[in-house]
Amino acid sequence: MIYEFNPGVWIPLGIVVLALVLFLGWMIKTYNMFVGLRNKVRNSWSQIDIQLKRRFDLIPNLVEVAKGYAKHESDIFTAFAEARTMYHQSSESNNVELAAKAESGLNGAISRLLAVSEQYPELKANSNFQSLMEELSDTEDKITYSRQFYNDHVMKINNQVEMFPSNIVASMFHFKSESFFEITHEHEREGVKIKF
């Protein structure tokens, strides 16, 4: 028995096979895109975490220098300790919202410390205090950049999770929207002003 080429059978079958191959290729590409975006979000979060850790490591040194001048300002030192504890909890659980809340508490304490330093010119003139404040200022800049970088990646993955047709692959493989690193208190919008 000899098979004859019958275009009425092979062409539709070829079209179906080609459509399946293209669909499978698109699914693989989209899945890999989600994995790449998720990893970028994780990496950019780790960059924020590094800078927040650096900032929280600088704080005890600043506090120790300031304690010698402003012994009666214990509420500031308590606020630093509470914010640091909250940060460690957020770091252990990879909780962006808790980290933002810890940062908010720290920003308030830093603002109060700066106000205290204005009342004590000898503290403000202390070379250790000045050096630590310069490091803190540098760290604040890095945190700002890292937050922006993180939020850019979160926006990209969130767009893909929500937009058609990539939302189909996102729901099939349980890719979820990520949380932005947002300002949680109105006083944070003003920023920390570091002056010498």
Automatic annotation (TrEMBL):
Keyword set includes Transferase: no
Recorded coiled-coil stretches: none
InterPro entries: LemA-like_dom_sf (IPR023353), MamQ_LemA (IPR007156)
Pfam family for this entry, one: LemA
Superkingdom of the source species: Bacteria
Primary residence: membrane
Subcellular location field: Membrane
Name by which UniProt lists this protein: LemA family protein
